[in-house]
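Private note to self, pasted from the team thread so I don't lose it. Backbone tokens:
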């Protein structure tokens, strides 16, 4: 079962699952069976044809079992992937893995999941069946507590797999005249039709007067959820009786062909054919053209890619509204505006029609052209006030950007692909896709050997990604070729970036004096090229190098110049890194107040952008500041928080390795002040904090004191969920885990998982501490005595 017209913002409130956009109807026995099989088997596959409701069933199961998986339930949507090459990276992206190491994607994914207790939902595996099977087996071998729930039109075919055929919804028996109205409305197919009908006709209800007609409709649709939802939309214009009559007319016409097609497939095909036939000529054209997008699109993309040749640009908005009304497109609210997506079954239909009309190649060309221009525009405007909006937009459009890149290389236009991959440099760095970005650049560099500006720029871009991944030999080789091209072309910008990243390599090698020489060359070249982005990047690194050598005056001067450049262009990302670096210098000078404020401002921006590297660096420096102020327990907690960040990224202080000595000094000082046992406990508790709570603690948004602790010297309590508060109260009453499980009708394993989460969030080590905490909360919430 799927959404009809609109859905809420596509956020993931529960560890990787999107909010359910529409009510879930029926399937109680199927949900129970899948849950039972997941408790026995590590891989379960829901099989069935398109439109039968596999995805919705998987999501419902995921929501119901999420408390049993300590590390979350994660949905991986595979329908938009054009092929198997990016399967592993798509899974890593869905699991929010932000690794910056050069490890292979499979090793990275397996390593991340090795100690995790998680459920991974692989949705729409059929076009990647072999690759999904291999990946599933690899992950199951590597991670003993990971389970996989897949949806596919056929089973994966791996050892231990439990395949569950998903049938259409039950429909009423043929003779409904003997059935009571109460029995009819309890039938799952009837309930789904009624609920979706009310979405378009609020007063609709199944009554004695229309019950037999509605029953005939859902029987005619074979109980297929997608067919029922598409048909229910017709009640905007038709009565239930008119709908049934027209269904019969259409099905007699459209299913009179090959008997080799399964009846249910004929049913869905006939209904989609009817939906297509009910569209105007221009709506049909738009349906076909939208099918070339992956993962969704906004109105601007629809107007640019889909207009022309029969559709005027100004007509696109009305045609989109028409397709939303007909449930062909689904409207979704995102943080950056309204987007539209198409169900995979309808996308396949549109693509089939587009191919039949001989227009697929043309629309693919338009699609990749639009996203190439989008990437180039982003590169031109990223250093400025629209920066955050661009970062957000590129992340939302990632599936289309990926498809456009693949299309460039498939169309034998590697230079276009290489240029686009280089234009997206900041997208690769600030999101989940650093490894993927380097792969695209390397693919383009291998396919296009023309030593022009595009290659020179792509070489230094790939070198920066290699530096972040600590692959310094590869970075040096890339920069040598980039320098040769820059010198031959006389391109100051290319030579400026080559000098900048050469300086970073020297800094990583412990040669700050040599690094400063490269940075000064880079600054001069970027000024000559009027390149503000390069100037800001270089000034950050120049300031840090001077600071590292104890040269406070030039360090501060470079920092202030950088901040002025950023202010002039209303730029925030580089400014945040500059504030972090200046905070290090202020900490070195003993100005802990200014250092703290600089790091807080840097952290606030990194958090708003989702920049884990920037956040980790700011938390690092806040830990050093806390230790310098004698707040050793807070310092230890922050070291734990940042340990978790570096673990998620796969490397500590990535690209800023020269700061490692400060980290080690802070750790040694804090361990000595607290003692080994207390230090270890505090670090472990900090490392267990969820990412957002850890950042809130670092920012002191938790209300903690100077030592970052509550009344009892512990880190402040995180906010417990309603169920966790309920279980904490039962713990305070002295109930055992088994008694708690029986009281709440949950498994003992689930109860134990909740208690572990409570201990972690509150920073406790015993049930007695939970009981004390519950008592203190109860007393604090008592109303004051009346006078």
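Design output:
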């Amino acid at each position: 079962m799927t959404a009809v017209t609109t859905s809420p913002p596509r956020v993931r409130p529960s560890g990787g699952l999107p909010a359910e956009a529409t009510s879930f109807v029926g399937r109680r026995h199927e949900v129970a069976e899948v849950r039972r099989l997941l408790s026995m088997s590590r891989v379960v596959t829901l099989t069935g044809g398109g439109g039968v409701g596999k995805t919705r069933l998987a999501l419902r199961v995921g929501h119901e079992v999420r408390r049993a998986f300590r590390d979350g339930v994660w949905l991986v949507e595979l329908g938009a992937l054009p092929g198997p090459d990016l399967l592993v990276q798509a899974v890593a992206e869905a699991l929010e893995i932000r690794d910056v190491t050069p490890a292979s994607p499979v090793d990275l994914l397996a390593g991340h999941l090795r100690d995790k207790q998680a459920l991974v939902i692989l949705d729409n595996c059929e076009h990647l069946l072999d690759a999904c099977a291999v990946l599933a087996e690899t992950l199951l071998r590597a991670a003993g507590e990971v389970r996989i729930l897949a949806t596919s039109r056929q089973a994966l075919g791996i050892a231990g797999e439990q395949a569950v055929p998903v049938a259409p919804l039950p429909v009423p028996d043929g003779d409904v005249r003997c059935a009571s109205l109460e029995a009819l409305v309890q039938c799952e197919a009837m309930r789904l039709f009624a609920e979706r009908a009310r979405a378009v006709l609020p007063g609709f209800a199944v009554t004695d007067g229309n019950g037999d007609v509605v029953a005939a409709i859902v029987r005619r649709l074979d109980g297929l959820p997608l067919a029922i939802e598409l048909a229910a939309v017709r009640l905007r214009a038709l009565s239930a009786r008119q709908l049934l009559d027209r269904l019969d007319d259409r099905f007699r016409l459209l299913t009179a062909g090959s008997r080799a097609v399964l009846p249910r497939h004929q049913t869905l095909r006939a209904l989609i054919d009817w939906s297509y036939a009910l569209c105007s000529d221009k709506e049909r054209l738009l349906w076909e053209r939208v099918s070339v997008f992956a993962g969704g699109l906004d109105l601007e993309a629809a107007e640019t890619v889909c207009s022309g040749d029969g559709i005027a640009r100004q007509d696109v908005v009305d045609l989109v509204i028409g397709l939303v009304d007909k449930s062909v497109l689904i409207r979704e609210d995102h943080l950056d505006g309204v987007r539209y997506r198409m169900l995979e079954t309808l996308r396949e239909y549109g693509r089939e029609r587009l191919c039949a009309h001989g227009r697929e190649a043309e629309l693919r060309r338009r699609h990749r052209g639009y996203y190439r221009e989008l990437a180039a525009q982003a590169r031109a405007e990223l250093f400025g006030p629209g920066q955050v909006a661009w970062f957000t937009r590129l992340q939302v459009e990632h599936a289309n950007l990926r498809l456009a890149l693949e299309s460039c290389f498939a169309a034998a236009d590697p230079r276009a692909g290489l240029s686009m991959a280089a234009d997206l440099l900041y997208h690769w760095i600030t999101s989940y896709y650093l490894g993927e970005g380097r792969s695209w650049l390397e693919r383009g560099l291998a396919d296009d050997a023309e030593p022009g500006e595009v290659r020179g720029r792509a070489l230094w871009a790939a070198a920066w990604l290699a530096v972040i991944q600590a692959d310094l030999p590869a970075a040096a080789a890339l920069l040598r070729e980039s320098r040769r091209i820059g010198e031959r072309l006389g391109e100051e910008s290319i030579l400026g970036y080559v000098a900048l990243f050469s300086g970073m390599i020297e800094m990583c090698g412990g040669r700050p004096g040599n690094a400063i020489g490269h940075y000064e060359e880079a600054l001069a070249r970027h000024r000559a090229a009027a390149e503000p982005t390069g100037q800001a990047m270089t000034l950050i690194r120049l300031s840090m190098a001077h600071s590292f050598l104890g040269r406070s005056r030039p360090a501060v001067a470079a920092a202030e110049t950088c901040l002025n450049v950023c202010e002039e262009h209303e730029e925030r990302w580089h400014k945040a890194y500059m504030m972090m670096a200046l905070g290090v210098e202020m900490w070195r000078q003993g100005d802990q107040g200014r250092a703290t404020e600089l790091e807080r401002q840097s952290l606030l921006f990194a958090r708003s952008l989702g920049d884990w590297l920037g956040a980790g660096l700011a938390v690092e420096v806040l830990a050093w500041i806390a230790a310098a102020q004698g707040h050793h327990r807070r310092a230890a907690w922050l070291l734990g928080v940042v340990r978790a960040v570096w673990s998620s990224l796969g490397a500590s202080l990535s690209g800023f390795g020269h700061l490692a000595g400060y980290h080690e000094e802070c750790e040694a000082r804090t361990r000595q002040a607290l003692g080994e046992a207390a230090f270890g406990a505090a670090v472990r508790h900090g490392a267990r904090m969820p990412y957002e709570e850890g950042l809130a603690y670092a920012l002191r948004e938790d209300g903690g004191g100077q030592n970052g602790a509550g009344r009892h010297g512990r880190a402040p309590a995180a906010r417990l969920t309603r169920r966790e508060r309920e279980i904490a109260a039962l713990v305070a009453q002295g109930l055992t885990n088994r008694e708690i499980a029986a009281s709440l009708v949950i498994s003992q394993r689930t109860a134990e998982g909740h208690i572990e989460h409570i201990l972690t969030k509150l920073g406790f080590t015993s049930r007695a501490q939970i009981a004390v905490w519950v008592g203190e909360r109860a007393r604090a919430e008592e109303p004051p005595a009346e006078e």
